[in-house]
Amino acid sequence: MKLDKYDRILLQALQEDGRVPQNELGQRAHLSTAAVNRRLKLLQAAGVIERFSAVLDPKALGYDLTVIVQVKAES
Q1: Which positions ≥6 away from 46 have C-beta within 8 Å?
Q2: In 1-74, which residue ranges form alpha helices assigned H by DSSP?
Q3: Considering only CA atoms, which of 45, 73, 55, 47 is closest in space to residue 15?
Q4: Alpha carbon separation from 17 to 55, 58, 59 (Å, rounded)
Q5: pLDDT at 66
Q6: Is the pTM of this model over 0.85?
Q7: What does the angle CA 34 – CA 40 – CA 42 come to, to the nearest 5 degrees?
Q8: What's the burial of 30, exposed, middle or buried (CB within 10 Å: 0-12/13-18/19+)?
Q9: Fewer CB within 10 Å, N- or C-terminus of the chain?
Q10: What is the pLDDT of residue 65?
Q11: Each residue's pLDDT tens digit in the chain (75 positions)?
């Protein structure tokens, strides 16, 4: 899928805040809410947007841990 300037604006805004409302996305990209909705559906169908997810803060959840991982690869 070839991305145009509007797709790039939408994707940049979603990377900054995945919960930004579609009407605000439209204002940023100078598109109608319907056009934003259509583009987001196309981006999802094309696999450009895989999913929407929440990034959790472990400390806010009460987790205070350090993880050390060692990987040994054999050729």
Answers
A1: 1
A2: 5-16, 22-29, 33-45
A3: 55
A4: 11, 19, 20
A5: 80
A6: no
A7: 105
A8: exposed
A9: C
A10: 80
A11: 899 999 999 999 999 999 999 999 999 999 999 999 999 999 999 999 999 888 888 889 998 888 899 999 998
With the CA atoms of 40, 18, 21 and 9 taken in that order, what torsion angle do they form, in degrees rounded to the nearest 10?
Answer: -60
Cβ within 8 Å of residue 3, ≥6 positions away: 11, 48
d(CA 58, CA 56): 6
Burial class (CB in 10 A: 0-12, 13-18, 19+), 39: buried
Q: What angle do CA 24, 28, 34 make, to 5 degrees?
A: 60
Length of the chain equals: 75
Give the span between the Cα atoms of 60 and 28, in whole angstroms.
31
